[in-house]
Structures are given as C-alpha cells and as structure tokens.
Amino acid sequence: MSEPVPADELDRFAALARRRRTSLRLDPEAPVPAELIERLCAIAAWAPSHKRTWPWRFAVLTGAARRRFGEAAAAQLVAEGIDDEARLAATRAKYLRSSTVVVVAAGAHADPDLHAENRDAVAAAVQNFLLGATAAGLGSFWATGAPVRSAAVRRMCGFAPDDRIVAVIYLGWPTGEVETPTRPPAAVAHVRD
Which of 88, 123, 130, 141 makes the best surface tag, with the fewest CB within 10 Å? Predict the structure, then answer.
C-alpha cells in the first residue's frame, strides 16, 4: 500500500484549483510560447481514457487564425438563422480577446459507449490543461457556443468530421486579478454496508 499524500501537498493542489479562474482579462498581444502550450497539452493528455482511446485533439490558433475562427463561428450562427448584426460582429471579434485560442476535440468512436466516454475523457483533459495553465501563471476561459457545431471550424482545426469539439479555451497572460467566487460545499453521499 502506498503512503498517503502529505497534507501540505494536497493543500497546495487545493490552492491551485481554487486559484484557477474563468477570466477574459488577458493581454491579447502577449504571445504564449509554443513550448508552453505543447507542455500544457502533454499535461492534459494524462487524463483518464477508458480503453486507452486517447481521444484528445488540440488545435492552437494565434495571429490571424483567431479572426478566421471568429468568421467561421459567425457563419455557423448565420446558418442557424441568426441575423442580429451586433451579435455576429461580436462573434467575429471575440476570439481576438486573447493571444491564443486552443480548440480541444474528442475523437469519434464507432462504439456508442466509447464515443460518449471519449467526450468525458476530453473534459478531464481540459481541466488538466486549465490547472496547468494556472500553475504557469496564465489566465484561461473555457467556452463552447457556435464553434462546437461548425463543420468549417472542425476543418480549420484539422479535426475529423465526426470529432466533437468540447472546449474553446481563451489562453493568455492575465492583465488583472479576478475575484474568487464563493461555491457551495460539494454534496457527498457516503454509502456503507
């Protein structure tokens, strides 16, 4: 049997998890080094993966690719019947709020159970990525919306047609602090005998 984790190690991890904030107070011009992003993707890939399907797919968008991504997201809204020009303009521009956008998808699987579990594995990978980003001093924001439904976005990111986009992560260097939200205690049921 292995030794229990020292309390101070668990306390440090708990502090890291509490420090992770959803924030768009990011410097849109300060680049995140490619090596750091690669490292965060490697950390993400330590998430559990049922039957070792390794379903995570990553696409890193910087520079003008962020604008093209916004155009593809706006086109998806138009295809869904949205014609509010203010909303479409905001969608075209919003991916420019951070220097880097990381799109994370789940690889498709022919088995319906594994297909569903792949999405769960990718959600766990996204959390690893976000915690790693926090540990590295980066700010992040996990979004979804129109891009997750867009075939054009999947093509732009190099994903297969049946891959499912799970997260659009705004990533960058923070420009300010974000207030720590209060959270209710976790609901835990202890079932014995």
Answer: 123
